[in-house]
Amino acid sequence: MQEPSFVQHLFGAIARRYDLANHLLSGGLDFLWRRRVARIVAGWQPETLLDLATGSGDIALALRRRMPRVRIVGADFCVPMLREAVRKGVDPVIAADGLALPFADAVFDGVTVAFGLRNMASWPGALREMRRVLRPGGHLLILDFSLPPAPLRWVYRPYLHRVLPWIAGRLTGERAAYEYLGDSIERFPSGAAMCALLEEAGFASPRAERLSCGIVSLYTATAA
pTM for this structure? Predict the structure, then answer.
């Protein structure tokens, strides 16, 4: 759980080079993760979707390519990131706090949040807001970083805390943003702990799936 103004500042500072850093630091795996998300969401056959913490809009664009007739709303509380999303063609977008969404109850068939819940001031509060704006039986998908199991974890942690911030600092000029990344991943609940949070927030049938040997986890659940 994070301090909102700190997170806004960090992401605003790296907005212009955010996509480049993501592609390089993930070794292109981020393209595979987005395709996986789009395949899952397409299976829901939604009519309306909220892409929360849309950032520079890559998930929203992947969803639109897969489902061109679905209405997809991108929301984020970092305006410089939203400007990047708009520049790339995401429409509509709205500046919104994930803990106080400016939508009526039960208006979306699905909610996606990729690499965003981890940065919110209250994970339970954000999950409750996602549940509120979902129709009964609507679907939630969360994609976020996690720590892989041992022995890969022993190699990954030095990369996450030392190598990645150094490379990202050279790319973006904002090493502190990527030092924060590693710390936030360490604190973020994953696996059974995340599934328990989902159930407490009013979701049913939570499922966890490890991607890329566990450096990323994907969660799905249904609004009870």
Answer: 0.94
